[in-house]
Amino acid sequence: MKNYTITVNGTAYDVTVEEGGAGSVATTSSAPKAAPKTAPKAAAPKPVATGAQGSVKIQAPMPGKILAIKANAGQAVKKGEVVLVLEAMKMENEIVAPQDGTIAGVNVAVGGQVEAGDVLATMN
């Protein structure tokens, strides 16, 4: 007989299996026990913002990867002008300025991963 611990949907079960030829029956004995704890994954550090923070936040509409930064801190932009390019689900999404203003800071770097709602840049 061999004993195994099997985890199903976070619940661990002790299972005993009899070794044998054809026609043998496997038996299980179990009382659920706590699943082993795994250490949480450390989040990647976020890049530090460049310059001062502005009052208007440009946020990520979805999780993805930053492909390009089209506007830098101190640059004047018009409403609808592309500030960043975000790749999500193999599609390139242009993140645009919500109003006319000046980019106060860019909080991400090319190649960085972002989550929905993360502040990508700020503007005044």
Mean pLDDT across the residues is 80
Order of helical and strand elements: EEEEEEEEEEE
Work out the helix count. 0
The fraction of residues in strands falls at 35-45%
Radius of gyration: 26 Å
Largest sheet composition: 4 strands, antiparallel
Number of strands: 11
Structural class determined from secondary elements: mainly beta
What shape does the CA trace take? rod-shaped
Low-pLDDT residue spans: 42-51
Roughly how much helix do the residues carry, as a percent range? under 10%
* Distance from first to last alpha carbon: 71 Å
Strand order of the largest sheet: 4-11-9-6
Describe the structure.
- The chain is mainly beta.
- It contains no helices and 11 strands.
- The protein is rod-shaped.
- The model is unreliable at 42-51 (pLDDT under 50).
Short description:
The chain has 124 residues and is mainly beta. Helix content is 0%, strand content 44%.
